[in-house]
Amino acid sequence: MPQNHFRKLLRLNAVQTLSLGFAALILAGGLLLTLPFASRDGQSIPFLNALFTAASASCVTGLSLYDTYTQFSLFGQAVILLLIQIGGMGFMSLSILFSILLHRRIGLHERSILMDSVGALQMGGVVRLTRRAIRVTFCLEGGGAALLALWFLPRYGLGRGLWMSVFHAVSAFCNAGFDILGTGSSLAVMAGDPLPNVVIMTLIAAGGLGFLVWDDILTHRRHVRRWRLHSKIVVVFTSALFAGGAAAFYFLEGNHAFAGATFGQKILMAAFQSVTCRTAGFATADLMKLSQSGILLTLILMFIGAGSGSTGGGAKVNTVAVLLLSALAQVRRKQDVNIFRRRLDEETIRRAYSSVSMFFLACLAGCMVLCAQGITLDGALFEAISAIGTVGLTRGVTPRLPELSKLVVLLLMFSGRVGSMSVAMAVTRDRPQAKLRNVPEKILIG
Predict the structure, then answer these.
(1) Are 160 and 66 in contact (CB under 8 A)?
(2) CA 152, CA 272: separation in Å to the nearest integer?
(3) The pTM is what?
């Protein structure tokens, strides 16, 4: 009996396996980054700082205690890039890639983990979806690196220029936000330059759509009516957020963060800011100069984030869309939530409310701890949303985080990448559904 009970405890479900896999990846990355030759000066960095950097890379966030280029050697940068790639694609996707190459059979347990990793709706066809996701990733990253090389090579030479092209292409597609320009001001040197701006924005948006959307695009192409409902919602709401965000930033920041830029530069900077707030973490403008309205808009976009099953984080654009559609249906006194001639089922709506609630509560809890550590409310709220949304934007708070705050931000990044709901489910025991249900009773709402 004790042995059987112990075996049941060791039998992990898909969510627990995914959470432990990311935790192991972060730990391994942290240990590698503490090695003396991972730093340029040959000195080991503190383990908590290395763990923080590994978590930020694995969770494709971009918050960093150091400037990546000036602190880390080529080996350290390569470790960070590998963590970004694995974290962006999902470690299970790469393990399946090796299984396919070695002609190993992929079991049901692995397929169930893959469903959570790549955002599949059903187990059938999940391996095919994973193969396509891997191909899409490497094709877009390779194409992006080739285009970025046209900008980097003339400025940095062949060797460093190629490395920077690959690094920034992977970091952009995976929505990581790490850069190796060595300026300490993210991508500010590119502000207003069309080629790198358009390429990086395209990679960020492509990674943020999600592999399920790319599967529809490649399968049905322009026949939008054949797309899954999920893909239609993600594309429509993502486009609306991008257009609305870009227009708002242009008018709000013209005399603040974008002051002194030409008309064309302001358009590019506004578009870039609208895209990067959706979990990318790059910046071409000085965030310390944002207006109060611009800060609020940034917080909203960071909170919403990218699509489910993508390389980005946040509460997820499709999840927030379900909440808005549900609220609109209530206002119009509609019993069903309908969109694109389809009705959303009740389970989807309940999961959306639960997911956003857990995300919001985790964000508030992290913000409270940061405030208790002496960080101002606006700085703590910006940092907490940026961390749990795996965005990576900061207004100067990250480099001066106290030790406890570093750990809290690390946990927020982890929850944001794995999913706050998934983390909560991973630490709770599975309980069988009760055969008898309690008597329902209404309470006042609103």
Answers:
(1) no
(2) 19
(3) 0.88
Which of 440, 415, 433, 446 shows the shortest CA–CA distance to 19? 415
Token code pair at residue 164: 């920077």
Q: What is the rounded CA–CA span in Å between residue 39 and residue 35?
A: 8
DSSP state for residue 430 in the 8-state scheme: -
Which residue intervals of 34-125 are DSSP H helices? Answer: 47-58, 68-71, 74-89, 91-101, 108-118
**Which residues, in sequence order, are CB contacts of 338 under 8 Å at separation 6+?**
329, 344
Give residue-wise pLDDT tens across range 78-101: 999 999 998 887 655 555 555 555
3-state secondary structure of 39: strand
* Cα Rg of the chain (Å, integer): 22
Which residues does 265 contact at the CB level (< 8 Å), separation at least 6? 191, 192, 258
User: Which residues fall within 8 angstroms of residue 112, CB to CB, at 6 or more apart?
Assistant: 14, 123
Span 314-367, pLDDT tens digits: 889 999 999 999 999 989 988 888 898 888 888 888 888 988 998 999 999 999
- Which positions of the chain have pLDDT values less than 70? 1-15, 90-127, 419-435, 444, 446
